Amino acid sequence: MDVNPDSPYYINLLDRKSHPEDQREYVMFHGCSKQGAELIKREGFKPSSADRMLGAGVYVSRDIRKACKYPLDVPDSEKRVLKVRVDVGKVKVIDMQNHPMQKTWHTVHGFDTAWVPPNVGIVLCNEEEDCVYDPKRIKVIEVMKVTEDNLSQYDHLQSGVTPEDSHVYVMYHGTSKQIAVDIQRNGFKPSKDGMLGAGVYLSRDIRKAIKYPIGADDSDRMVLKVKVNVGKVKVIKCQRHPMQKTWHTEHGFDTAWVPPGVGMVPSNQEEDCVFDPKRIKVLAMLKVPNLKNVNPWLKHLLQN
User: Fold this and answer.
1) Which residues contact 190 (CB under 8 A, 6 or more apart)?
2) What is the set of domains in the chain, with CATH numbers?
3) DSSP strand pairing (58-60 vs 129-132)
4) Rounded to whole angstroms, how far apart are CA atoms 281 and 253?
5) The model's pTM
6) What percent of the chain is helix, strand and coil (3-state, nearest 5)?
7) Whole-angstrom Cα distance, residue 275 to residue 230?
8) Range among 14-28, 90-104, 123-137, 198-212 with highest mean pLDDT value
9) Which residues pair with 234 in a beta bridge?
10) Residues 16-68: tens digit of each pLDDT
């Protein structure tokens, strides 16, 4: 299957702290020089030598900001980040220095990918890292320059984690085909009212966005993948919160966030309301039937 930057495979961007599941495909990143990127696109990845931290293999990361640091001695203007799709196969977690399988996870034990979680003291920067033994498991999707615009579109945040002030996050908005086209052309129009008052309603949970408009057929549903500069964030975690509808007009917050599981949203999923639509940029328009076809696991989640 051909994959482009707007492909539904973006859903398989797994949070860097989450354990990758066996036999799944995930989006990851690899930092290299401009020249190195051209060579990889032409000839494919070449596994590193066996003396590396996890032994021989191709080193990638689900953290794009880690990938963009490499090569360390190359200026940003000459760096490239490869967005890749990885079939991880059988995964071994290496969660401490001198792990008994640290360099034998493939050669002796038959695993296809080794995963180092963040903050376990193995990687110098304490970020997560993956090593894939067979380069044939990796397919380049896109070659990106190291720019803030390119990096921020992959700043996914798990739905239960509080968004930080002045950060940029990826979110989703479910709507009809006709309205999606209008938004792409003319920008978002804020709701005049709602649970959190006026603003644009979004969610970091794709399962929530994909259900809208309620009652519409899947063939008429679209999910907009957007990038949001949240500005100053107010957490609204109970019904009848004193700032539930005044967080912007009286208190100057830019975004209101309802955490999942607090009883305010019928689905119990998280919700965000952004007052100024200029803080939102559309990254991709995705058809709901395509999302479900490419990601059967998502279809299963929606039925539960």
Assistant:
1) 198, 199, 200, 275, 277
2) 8-150 (3.90.228.10), 159-302 (3.90.228.10)
3) antiparallel
4) 19
5) 0.62
6) 20, 30, 50
7) 9
8) 90-104
9) 256
10) 666 788 888 888 999 999 999 999 999 999 999 888 999 999 999 988 888 99
